[in-house]
């Protein structure tokens, strides 16, 4: 049997590595230390927190639904479709990942605003004004979260074995039937992982939301916006809201980590 040789840890890498770990964990520890644990149940049961949490959950879920409807076909086109300039299109799809969310909100306002490229026709023809409504919250969250789903599903499609699809085609299955019964089940773990990441990103969206939807309690004030609002008037409430978002983020990461571990074994 071969003995496992323990690798030496260079001090020049160990010290800044531990400093980086502390830099990431100390702010989280500070949040936990300053949390008013005795007041936590009453704070969570307050109408403001309940309203913001309900709006956040509903809007994030609706945004994730939009991303699934649009993102799965888009990922298939990028992975399997014979598109010109596919590399450029893939880069454009990932732009919201690096684009400042406030800029994304401004872009949405210029397109869907009352005088926007499309918003002017929605207002004139149907009397629909999207900015500063709950629908604007959903659109803003979907805009910033869609790339997470597309990247996850495209990666799953690229790693899937295409021979099963080829076998289905030789047996006379249509492309739509093959996609529904062969391709989609094969990449379902990637779709689920992308949807979870998409939902978590939508839940934590702030910049595009406040720019495109505003901050109106009960209508557009999601959890991140409620944190920003409470920080000026009630810091304890801001800490409680931040703790809820932290708990959701950790839960999502643990769930995905478990999936990655199972996939690696």
Observed structural traits:
77% helix, disordered C terminus, mainly alpha, 265 residues
Share in β-strands: under 5%
* Alpha-beta content class: mainly alpha
Roughly how many Å apart are the termini?
22 Å
What's the count of strands? 0
Q: What's the mean pLDDT score?
A: 85
How would a textbook summarize the main sheet?
A: none
Gross morphology is globular
Helix percentage range: over 70%
Question: What's the order of the H and E elements?
Answer: HHHHHHHHHHHHHH
Low-confidence stretches: 260-265
Radius of gyration: 22 Å
The number of distinct helices, counting runs of at least 4 residues, comes to 14
Short description:
This protein has 14 helices and no strands.
Topology:
Blueprint: H1 11-34, H2 40-44, H3 47-80, H4 86-93, H5 95-98, H6 101-112, H7 119-126, H8 134-159, H9 163-170, H10 175-186, H11 188-203, H12 207-212, H13 223-233, H14 235-264
Helix pairs in contact: 3-8, 3-11, 6-8, 8-11, 9-10, 11-14, 13-14
Describe this structure in words.
The chain contains 14 helices and no strands. It has 265 residues and is an all-alpha fold. Helix 3 packs across helix 11 (188-203). It is globular and about 65 Å long. The two termini are 22 Å apart.
């Amino acid at each position: 049997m071969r003995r496992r040789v323990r690798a030496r840890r260079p001090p020049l890498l160990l010290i800044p590595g531990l400093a980086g770990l502390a830099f990431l964990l100390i702010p989280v520890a500070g949040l936990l230390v300053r949390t008013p644990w005795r007041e936590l149940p009453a704070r969570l049961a307050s109408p403001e927190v309940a309203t913001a949490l309900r709006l956040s959950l509903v809007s994030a879920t609706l945004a994730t639904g939009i991303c699934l409807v649009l993102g799965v076909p888009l990922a298939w086109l990028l992975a399997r479709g014979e598109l010109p300039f596919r590399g450029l299109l893939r880069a454009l799809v990932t732009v919201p990942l690096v684009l400042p969310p406030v800029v994304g909100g401004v872009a949405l306002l210029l397109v869907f605003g009352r005088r926007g490229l499309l918003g002017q026709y929605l207002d004139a023809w149907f009397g629909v004004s999207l900015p500063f409504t709950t629908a604007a919250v959903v659109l803003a969250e979907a805009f910033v979260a869609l790339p997470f789903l597309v990247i996850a599903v495209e990666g799953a499609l690229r790693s899937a074995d295409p021979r099963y699809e080829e076998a289905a085609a030789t047996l006379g299955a249509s492309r739509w039937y093959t996609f529904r019964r062969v391709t989609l089940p094969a990449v379902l773990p990637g779709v689920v992982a992308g949807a979870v990441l998409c939902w978590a990103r939508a839940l934590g969206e702030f910049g595009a939301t406040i720019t495109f939807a505003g901050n109106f309690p009960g209508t557009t004030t999601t959890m991140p916006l409620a944190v920003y609002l409470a920080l000026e008037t009630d810091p304890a409430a801001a800490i409680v809201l931040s703790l809820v978002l932290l708990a959701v983020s950790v839960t999502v990461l643990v769930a995905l980590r478990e999936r990655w571990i199972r996939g690696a074994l």
